[in-house]
Structure formats: structure tokens, C-alpha cells
Queue: 3 jobs
Job 1
Amino acid sequence: MKLDVDALRYLSKEDFRVLTAVEMGMRNHEIVPAELVERIAGLKHGGTYKVLRNLLKHRLVHHDSSKYDGYRLTYLGYDFLAIKALVNRGVFSSVGRQIGVGKESDIFEVATEDGTILAMKLHRLGRVSFRAVKSKRDYLLHRRSYNWLYLSRLAALKEFAFMKALGEHEFPVPRAVDCNRHCVVMSLVQGYPLVQVKQLQNPDEVFERIIGLIVRLAEHGLIHCDFNEFNIMIDDEEKVTIIDFPQMVSVSHRNAQMYFDRDTDCIFKFFSKRFHLSFHYDKDGCDDSDSNLEENGRPSFWSIEKSAGFLDKELAASGFTRKDQDEIEKKLA
Ligand code: ADP
Ligand code: MG
């Protein structure tokens, strides 16, 4: 989706006031009745209706009259609210080019007042490729009834909280700068997603480092759950950075082992295919340092000493609660 931030400049205080009123109304209405928007916005002389027409023209709200006359925010409207809040807070001052399109996100460069470039990730749950969801029917069934804006906000909050906590434990992740609504601001990673890297100086070393990260995450009680060549960035020094955290789960999750093995498998398959690494397990050479490897040379989930709940405190400190985790898991599982 194109993000035409130019329109941001043309929006008046009243426009934002009404846009915010629609957002507030959406806390308990899927479609917010126009009278409710008017009541919350509190503009004089029916001014709300004129403003709503303007917001509609800029596609910041969607008009729905199927059941009653009402409005809901579009993703663009939600983007504008988040961007404005972050600009007001001084987190950045302008939005630049788009640098990534994920399955369920758009990533842009943003610039701070002093010219530092950061990355801004806008979560877009509900914009899923059919391949990525359990079943098309299931998806279509829920497409309308889910509150995607709410879930996107939860995903952003989770991503921000995990990125911050992981950074504090010295995992190689982008620096978590700030978060508002469905938007996460983080440092810009230099380098490329591993999927684009055709050659490495030291594929063995990079491989070991990546597998080491999966193991260390598990030791901290966590599984990434989408650990693959799209979510690992490599720079010119072959330094690794992990990104994309909304789907992480605890090692105490009932499917933890399956997720752990799937993450590990992805990396083994990718390195074997792209860099022709072969993985032979040498039984004779087995010493203590190899003791958490299985016969196929994969790290074994059960022999890792895990401290579940280790990051809970840090996560809660960012405002992401266990209840949020349960809710997001239930909806996205
Ligand atoms: P999704 O959850 O939609 O997969 P990601 O977080 O994986 O989103 O981001 C999608 C793409 O955007 C990545 O593959 C990467 O190319 C780019 N990207 C994401 N975060 C950053 C960042 N902090 N710095 C540079 N590029 C990034
Ligand atoms: Mg990704």
C-alpha cells in the first residue's frame, strides 16, 4: 500500500480531531455511527460531517451504510494517527521511502530532526496472502469480524517489547526506539535479508552463529517461530541481525518443540541448499560441548537448559502483558 504522507500536511486540527473520534468510537463499535463521531469530536455547527467528507476523500476513513450510517478507520487513517503521535513526540520528523513489504507489514525509512535514518514498521494484520493462512474459508469467515486494527496494535506492542528485552540481553536485534498503535520504530539495519545473499565468505561461521542464536533464545525461554532467511539480516562483515518478532512464543508453549525444530530445520535446509553445507554428525568426536546435539546434528530442544519466563518482567515493563500474549496467540495461531 502506498503511504501518501503529503496529505498529512494538509490535514487540519479539526481533521485529526474527527479522525481520533472515529478511533475512539471503534473501541466498542466495528462501524461508528456518525452521530457518535459527532458527539465525541464535539465540533460546532455540524462541522463533523464536512470533515468526515474530507477524511473520506483522502481515504482515511471508510463509509459503511449496510446496517446504519457509520464510519471506520482505514489502515491509512490509522497510519496517520500513529505517525502524527510519533512526530509530536519527536521520535522522527519525516517519512521517506518504503524499504520492505512483509507478509503483514510495510516498512519505511523515517528521518529524525538531526538526520538519523530509522526504520518504521507498520503492522497490517488481515492483509495476508491466502497461502499464509490456515484455510481460505476460515480467513474469509473472520476477515470482516476481526478487529484487525486492534490485532495490529497488539502485534506492534509485542514486537516492540520483545525487541527491547532481547536487545537488553545483547541479542543482535534492531534497537527498539518507540511504538505507537500499530507502528514500531527501530534502528535501520545495514545489510540485506539472508535470502538475497548469494555468497558468504564464511558460511560455516554464519551458520553456527545463527544456530547458536536459536539455542540461546531457547535458553532465555523463547522461540522465534519464523526464523528463516527472510528474517535474518546480514551485513558486509557477515554480522547477523534477527528481525520480525510478533509471533514469538515461550518454551512452555504446548507446541514449543515443533516450533523450535521448524526454526532449526529452516536454517539447515537453507544453508544446505544455498551454501552447500553438509551436516554430518560425528559420533566418535562427541564431547560435552556437543551434548545438546541430536543424531542428525540438530540441536535438541529437550537438552537445552531453558529458563521459561525469564523475559516476562522486561516484557511487562514495556506494557505487554501475559493476557496480551494469550490473546494474540489465540487469534494468530
Ligand atoms: P514481516 O513481519 O511483514 O515479514 P519484517 O519485519 O520481516 O516484516 O520486515 C520485512 C522486510 O523489511 C525485511 O525482510 C527487511 O528487508 C525489511 N526490514 C525490516 N526491518 C528492518 C530494519 N530495522 N532495517 C532494515 N530493513 C528492515
Ligand atoms: Mg519477516
Note: The first strand starts at residue 32 and ends at 33.
Job 2
Amino acid sequence: MAVSQAIPITRHPYADGSYKKMLIDGQWVDAASGKKFETHNPATGELLATVAEGDAEDINRAVAAARRAFEGPWSKVKPFERQNLLLKLADLVEKNFEELSQLDTLDMGAPISRTRGTRLRVLGMLRYYAGQATALHGETIENSLPGEIFSYTLKEPVGVVGAIIPWNSPLTASVWKIGPAIATGCTVVLKPAEEAPLRLAELCMEAGIPPGVVNVVPGYGETAGAALSSHSGVDKVAFTGSHVTGQAIVRASAGNLKRVSLELGGKSPDIVFADADLDAAVPGAAMAVFANSGQICSAGTRLFVEHKIYDEFVGRVAEFGKKLQVGNGLDPNTQIGPLVSAEQMKRVSGYLSIGQQEGAKALTGGTPLTEGALSKGYFVAPTVFANVQDNMRIAQEEIFGPVISAISFKDTDELIARANATTFGLGSGVWTTNVSKAHQVAKSLRAGSVWVNCYQAMDPAVPFGGYKMSGYGRESGKQHLEEYLNVKAVWIKTG
Ligand code: NAI
Ligand code: MG
């Protein structure tokens, strides 16, 4: 394993340790309580910013502002004007993309190559939603009633959206909530887990998005998040994060039966058949987990390998993992950054011990990295566990670290049952050169996405979301907009 050393990028203007306020009703304000929290660079421990810490009182203010905007001037804004606002925002994000990429890297540790690599996706999303803003429409529907009654539907914005996002991809996650809200004419109160979305909020203001349409209240889940998800003035919660928090949000939503969409975690199967192009499958299967240090909801963490090639293939994936360069994400050569926090480091290290106690064998990795340049950050070696059995905890629970659990299988029927034997259903992968097998397996897997001979392909026009405990609702694509719209049926007696 190589360790990155050089860090050529100098101090970031938005992460210089200074104080950042929250955005409510177009104003940058302190928390009502005056409280602040600190965010640190997970690669070095250095202070990035102190951030106004929102709680229930700030959520109240932000929801009230979002409601006023929704019922007031924003309701008069035409679709093409919303489109223009999103296009303007996209241009500003494009102009500032390098700065935003560095900010995400500083914030949560991902290699700069990865945060820069979200460019097309982030800009594509904003421009896709911009396009959709003028394409929303109801239908005229032929009915069978006696007499003459004309029926049609209107699509109307659902209202005030509470968006709660995790830390693992701050910019993308923010755009995924703000984009559809603006496109459909909703207003939004975003509760991020860190400060990067505040920079995006600045760009929203610069783009001319009116006060109250986008509000950003950073704070903790148990306070700000809980207040937002239980708030009677919120019409919908759009959440991305763990299934445990997803369950808390569903319970909190019961008070006013608000609409909820959930993009939760997974334990996604990535399946390699003996007839696959192994030269492509080795890096594909490795990076399906190691990318973003495993902190991706759809990571292909259960690596099912046909028994004939199991030893060879898993050995090659371990070799690949061993060669990855671990270090500070700002180094352009870094392939694996730190985990986001001490808490995640503890959690993932716990699973490394559990795997070994359960009898799995770490072919590479298996330990935290605490020496030299890595000693100040939260680094874990890319890990490949072999001899993993279906019932082990490392084969069932979301680890959210760079940990592959490699499992052997014999034939396709047995494989499908085992691959589906999970409470989750987010991503899945299939590696084979046999086209009919690829289609057959894709149809049999109970998951929201199936990637064949690739992994983690994403596009703004293609829906993404979960089956089972990976959540409900879709993000990206036309379905995403439907989550932010109500349908009204109108009946007009014409006879
Ligand atoms: P989390 O699900 O607790 O946090 C995600 C967001 O929800 C954050 O903004 C947090 O402040 C908020 N939140 C937390 N508790 C809340 C509550 N009671 N009401 C409303 N909002 C609340 O995830 P966390 O604690 O950051 O990570 C723990 C584990 O969750 C990870 O190790 C990973 O396994 C999983 N996770 C999965 C993600 C995914 O995309 N699938 C994303 C983040 C975490
Ligand atoms: Mg949590």
C-alpha cells in the first residue's frame, strides 16, 4: 500500500476556520440559541469551520419562511422562470466547481479525483431539473360517467419540503434535494450534516432564487433533524441516510402524515460469474466498494463469486486493494481517503474485528492505519474478507467502510435466493459475458438498480432508489419530480 504525501492545494477560502451562519429567509443568521459546532478535516483533524448550530427554534423560523415564500411570491413564479433560476445556479456551480470539489474533499475526505468527478453529474442534474421545470403537466382523462363531465388533472407542488442529507457526498446530495424542489415550485428547508451545502446556498442567493425558497439549517439529527421531520408545517420529508434514522423519520412524520421519501442504505450483492471478463471485473468489483472509502449507499459489499474462480478472483481483488494509494484526499494521487469521522472509524474498526471473530479471513487490510502521515486522520486499509458465510454480520450489516465480504456460490438458482436474502435492496452488480444470464439475473434481483459489467453508473434521467429497507421513492428521472408533486383531479360539468 502506498501512502500519499504531497498536498499541493493551499488553504480553502471557505474552510479557513472561520464562522459560518445559517440561511433563513434569504438572511445569514446565527442560531437562536447562539450555539455553534466545529467541523474538522477528517484527513488531518484541522479545523475547517465553526457553524451555527440549528435546533427546533431555527427549524421553526426556516419552515415559517419557506411557507411564506410558498404561499406568496414563489407561487406566482412561472415554470420558465424557475428553469432560468436553475440554469443560472448550474452556471454558478460550474464556475465555482473546483472550489466546491475541494470543499467536499476537505469536509468528508473523498479523493479530489472523485469530488471533481461528480462535475458532470451535479451540473447534469441541475440542468436536467431545469429542463423538467417546463415539462410538468397533468392529463385530460376520458371518463365513463353519464352526461357530459370533463375531467383533467393538475400537477401542483407538494409544498414545504424538509430535506435531510448525510455527509457522504454533500454537494450531490444537496443538489438532489434542491433541484427537484425548485423545478416543481416547492420550497425547501435543508438540514445538512456539515457546512459544504452552505456554500451552495450562497450560490442559490447569487443565482437570484428568492428569499425563503431555499433555507439551510445545519445542526444535529436528534435536534434539528427531529424537529424538521416532525414539524406540522412541513408537507414532505426527503431523506437520505441510514435505515435506522429513516425509521425514526417515518415515526416522526405521523403527526401530520407528511409525505416521506427515503434513500437508505444497503448490503448490495455484486455477482461475478466464471464467464465474466475478469480483467474488467477485478477493478470493477474492488472500486464498487473502495470508492469513497466504502461510504456509498449502494456499494457492492457482498461480493458473490462463482466457486470455480473464487480463490483466483478474490486473490486478484485483494492484490488490487493492496496497491491503492491511501491518504489525504487533496493529493491528486490519492485513491482512498479517510473515513468521515472518529465515530465512523470506530464503527468500521469494530466490523473488522467482528469479521475476524466470525472466522472470515482478511486477505488484505483488516486494520485501521495509524502510522506516519495517516496518524492524524481516520484511515482504514482497503479490506477483502474471504471465507465469508451468508449469516455473518459482515455479510448482513451495512459497514460503510472499505470492506469487501467475498462469498462463494455454485449455481444461479442458489445464488439468486442468497443474493436476495437481505433486508436491503438498493444496488446490485452482475459480471458475465452471457447476455441471457445477465437479463435473467437482472430480472430476479430484488434491488432498485442492477449494473451489468459496470457498477454505480448514475444519470440524472435514470431513476435511483431502493426496494425493501433501502427505502421508497426514486431520485433522478421523472419519478423524482412526482415525489414533489400533488395530483389534483378537476371535474367540470359541461352538458
Ligand atoms: P444518519 O442516518 O444518522 O444521518 C443522516 C442524516 O440524518 C444527518 O443529517 C443526521 O443529522 C440526520 N439525523 C440523524 N438522526 C436523526 C433523527 N432522529 N431525525 C432526523 N434526522 C436525523 O447517519 P450517520 O449517523 O451519519 O451514520 C451512521 C451509519 O448510517 C453509517 O455508518 C452508515 O452505515 C449509515 N449511513 C448510510 C447512508 C447512506 O447513504 N445509505 C448515509 C449516511 C449514513
Ligand atoms: Mg446518526
Note: Residues 221, 245 surround magnesium ion (ligand 2) (CB under 6 Å).
Job 3
Amino acid sequence: MLPEDNYRHKGLRKKLVEGIKEKGISDARVLKALETVPRHLFLDNAFLEFAYQDKAFPIGAGQTISQPYTVAFQTELLQLKKGEKVLEIGTGSGYQTSVLMEMGAKVYSIERQKELFDKTKRLLQQLNYTSAKLFYGDGYKGIPTFAPFDKVLVTAGAPFIPEALLEQLKIGGILVIPLGEGEVQIMTSVIKKGPSDFQTDEFGEFRFVPLLEEKAWKKT
Ligand code: SAH
């Protein structure tokens, strides 16, 4: 059966996006992408009522689909231009990946949970979001073969900025990462000014599941 995206879904999405705009997101391209991507199809069946609330939600394997506002906030910080190469760490449900694709980015995304990697790969094909390159691996290492990237987006709470990700960022590129080991992280953007010259800015508190090292070999 083809996944359904009907007028009710579209209406709910419009409302969600209005709310996100009121919370301070102003980049029209980000808002348009959120209005386009059918978030309800990234949750397991029967969770429609949760899909268009501005909340994170469990997606299996102990992980969550990020809150729409958080997705919008991180995407806005990336200052994305069409055609840019983006490395995403933490594919999860594939929702953020799809938002980036809607904005015309060439997305490379890594997920360390095999179960989620397999599930999301199937889903994105089904939804016709086929341009992203998905990798099963450890995001701390990035993807050296496809570096450098214009932008890097980390969608899990990291205890520190992985060196490999800074190396794989182009000069002039931006890395967005929630930093902090506890329950709460500080949203941080890092602009690479030169090979070892970085400008760091902080954007307040957010909550993410942790960025864990190595691939997961069993369910965590
Ligand atoms: N962008 C996702 C958010 C998922 S939550 C979405 O829109 O749904 C963060 C994801 O990061 C989880 O799926 C988790 O398994 C993954 N993750 C955690 N540590 C990782 C690592 N070292 N490498 C790659 N993915 C990781």
C-alpha cells in the first residue's frame, strides 16, 4: 500500500509550521521543507496524533525522531544553499535527512543502529527520497571517502566535537552540534575559518539522545 498523505495531514502540518514560525524560525526555505515532508510517515503506524505535535517521539531501538522545532532550528543554523554537500550524523527515522533533501542538499547520513539503518533505508526509498547516501557506521569518524562537506549536522548529544568531523568540513563550512554529556546539551555552531581556525557560537539548551561511539552490535 502506498503511504497516504491527505488533506488532513497537510492541514495539521501547516498548523505545526505556523507554531514553529511563532517560536522564532524565520528561514522561509526551512519552513517550506517542514511543510512538505510528511512527518507522520516517519513514525510507526497509528501515531498520527503525535506526528504533528511539536514533540520528539520514540522510533524504536531506544531512539527518537527529533522535535520539529529542533529540526528547524538546526537546519536554519546550517544556512544551507541548494546543491551543498551535507554530512548528517544520526539518520534515525530519516526525517531530518528528508528535510535536508527537500532543501536541495546532497545528503550523506550515518546511523550506528543497524535496525534503524535498515528500516529507514526502506522507508526513504518508499517515499521517493532516494538521493541521500545512507551509511551504517560510527558517526564519530565521519565519511572520509566523501569529504570535504559544506555542512555537518550532528543530531545526537555529543560529549565533545569529534576531530574527524572538523577535518572533513570545508573551509567556510558550518558544523552544527548539540554539546553536552548530561540530559541537556548546548546547541553549538562552528564555522571553519581556516584549517585550524574555528569560530564557535552557542544557541541555548536542547535535549537529545546521546551520540555513542562505535556501531551498535546489539540493541541498546
Ligand atoms: N535525525 C534523526 C534524529 C535521530 S536521534 C531524525 O530526524 O529522526 C539520533 C540518532 O543518532 C539515533 O538514531 C542514534 O542511533 C544515532 N546515533 C547515536 N550515536 C551515533 C553515532 N556515533 N554514529 C551514528 N549515529 C549515531
Note: Residues 30 and 75 are 7 Å apart (CA to CA).
